[in-house]
Amino acid sequence: MIVPSVDIRGGQAVQLVGGKTLAIEAGDPVPIAERFGRVGEVAVIDLDAALGTGDNREVIRKIVSRVPCRVGGGIRDVQTAIEWLDAGARKVILGTAATPEVLRQLPKDRVIAALDARDGEVVTEGWTKATGQTVEERIKELRPFVGGFLVTFVEIEGRMTGLPLDRIKGLAALSGAAKLTVAGGVRSPGDVAETDAIGVDAQVGMALYSGAFDLAEGFCAPLRSDRDDGLWPTVVTDAAGRVLGLVYSSLESVRKAIEIGRGVYYSRSRGGLWVKGESSGCSQELLSIGVDCDRDCLLFRVRQAGYGFCHNGSQTCFGSLSGVAALERTVDSRLRESIAGSYTRRLASDAGLLRSKLLEEVGELIDAATPAEAAHEAADVMYFAQIAASVRGASLEDIERELDRRALRITRRPGDAKVEQRGDANDCQ
Asked: Going by C-beta distance under 8 Å and a sequence separation of 6 or more, which residues neighbour residue 421?
């Protein structure tokens, strides 16, 4: 699939030819990365850090907090790599520091070794230093320690001359289980489709920034359809992956969805684009677009507004939500409505009572002796915790996002119990 690239120099998104000559200065990299991130991971490269002329850490931290990223450029030690992983980077890209000694100290599945090659020879330090090693030699050396390789063909990077597919096939076979991504030379959606067909991702920069093709064309290039109309079945889910319904997409609808950041599909009944919620008010904010393993079905993750997804008035086309999603919806509706005798509203308006009940239920969960008792008490805890979160403006999506963020951290807190402070300093005198 396509991996859009955001190369940053002096705080600006840029595109260089051959790693040297400035061809395009695209401006603020944050909105560019946010748009690119709608179709998957974005490669964010700190060119200044790679060349040792400074860094763009603050702007990249902002991007990492909002977009699924693989971060590279100037990561030359274990601590810096861990800092980026802790900050939320899905993966880190190591070039000069990609040695067995360093890689052994990092989680294999979240490390990509960057092999920048000029005429087959690996170069480092911002493509300025020749190593004397071939790409093939480096792949064999590092294959046991990384989850992926990024091979950049420096001599054609930024020139859009096409990819050396025969060579890529050999590198893919040599990489084994490590996922291969290639960069340099991509000129058309066909390049993305051809690399995907052999199990390789294409990292694309210049072609997107120059307008040779757009993000939707690059993303959809590997897709196939067995329908006469060429449409792709599209599963729509909420942020947590709960299925809302099934619709259909076309290249034009995907392009519009990426452009405006909303749920946009192809309506078979209307014979054209359908922006969800334009008439009903039940609009969707687009979070991401994914594709299945067979490349014949899309997945739209959205933030649904209004009463729900289905035109019949239900929350999903398969009925109502259940579990914690239903709990959140019930709590929110009780907090909005003035229902006499509502226990939820009473708890929300009495902080002391809510605190007391939450602590009480936590204690009962700790004392639970059987699976049934534990499930019963945990459900109580979740009810009171949901109210506590909701009255403070935190949604279930916020909670799940925080859990996902913590799962990306490498550095772990000790987890010791906090010492509760009671009284004041005079109590000890």
From this structure: none
Euclidean distance between CA atoms 200 and 1, whole angstroms: 7
109 in the same domain as 8: yes
- 158 touches 15 (CB < 8 A): yes
Do the domain assignments include residue 33?
yes
Stretch 78-94: mean pLDDT, rounded?
96
Residue that the structure tokens 């259909």 belong to: 248
What's the total number of domains in the chain?
Answer: 3
Asked whether the beta carbons of 250 and 266 are under 8 A apart, the reply is yes
Residues 6+ apart with CB under 8 A from 380: 361, 364, 365
Residue 16 has a pLDDT of: 87
Neighbours of 269 (CB within 10 A): 6
Question: What does DSSP say about strands 148-153 and 179-183: parallel, antiparallel, or unpaired?
Answer: parallel
| Residue 429 binned pLDDT confidence (cut-offs 50, 70, 90) | very low
- The sign of the CA dihedral 59, 65, 68, 72 is positive
Q: Do 205 and 127 fall within a single domain?
A: yes
Domain residues for the domain of 350 are 323-407
Write out the DSSP string of 242-263: -EEEEEEE-HHHHHHHHHHTB-
Same domain, 54 and 173: yes
Position 95 in a domain: yes
Strand partners, 203: 3, 183
> What's the CATH number where 238 sits?
3.10.20.810
pLDDT surpasses 80 at 421: no
